[in-house]
Specification:
With about 325 residues, the protein is of the alpha/beta class. It has helices at about 1-25, 35-55, 65-75, 90-100, 120-125, 135-140, 160-175, 190-200, 215-220, 235-240, 265-270, 270-280, 285-295, 300-310, 315, 320-330; strands at about 30-35, 55-65, 80-85, 100-105, 115-120, 150-155, 180-185, 210, 220-225, 260-265. The chain has 16 helices and ten strands.
Length: about 325
Amino acid sequence: MRKLLSATLLLLGTTGLASQASAGECGKVTIADMNWNSASLIANVDLFILKNGYGCDAELIPGDTMPTGTSMVEKGEPDIAPELWSNSLKAALDKGVEEGRLRFAAAVFIEGGEEGFWVPKYMVDKDPSLSTIKGVLKNASLFTHPEDPDKSAFYGCPAGWNCQISSGNLFNAMKFGDAGFELIDPGSSAGLSGSIASAYEKKKPWFGYYWAPTAVLGKYEMVKVDFGSGTDADHFKSCITNADCENPKATMYPPSAVDTVITESFAKRSPAAVDYLSKRSFSNSQMNVLLAWMEENQADGEIAMDHFIRNYSDTWTKWVSPAVAKKVKSAL
């Protein structure tokens, strides 16, 4: 009996030490909480799962694309940038990877960041040809300009945004002007989303630029128009995105790189947590719905995280082991 009791105590002690060692390996983890909804939701999901599933001493710190990426390269902190639109600082991030400071853990959105020209689904349901640029140009008269009934309206990207250049060049490349379209500057993101909402509520035609994942595309069913051109990423980068593009050609928007970036020091001390991050990704359609829920419920990242963990277990349990999933569920 003494031998059995001693063995049991030894086993319990060993298990306790192993648990402490596991938490110690993960240790203190800092996660960038970016100032837009999808990134804040994902940061809070990572916080909850790493803290409760992997025993990490995790905390959120404020973040934004440029300062967070620069700090990770130069100072090695924060440990995790859950949603980094990496094209805007690709050279710096690639240098950080080359020097052994950073690692790209995974693409956080399965399809990447998505841009395109869109029409409401109810229009395509009525006339499937409107899902193509040929169909839109042929039926240009449907898209009445709000200030001039003799013209057609194409809602472009707000002035000052990089997408204003690309949408304008593609407007010219596909000769929208020849079909009677006029490029409308919506003035702001709110103006652009408001024009979609207004059209949808009245079931009126709408045609223009938008991107995903966004709450708007989660709330309103839109169809991305096929240019019939395929995607020429090189031409898009060298010409379509430049204001001085002299001979723009039609090309679909290539996906934008949206990555989870981590420091190499974190990757080395917590491989189990890195395995989770490498599997953690969302489809744009799923994130659109989550963002719409956040907007409708005026929810911040923490509240949205709770909603996601409770209602999307079929999604997140695929990212972790059954043992970790059990811990996360218990923590609710």
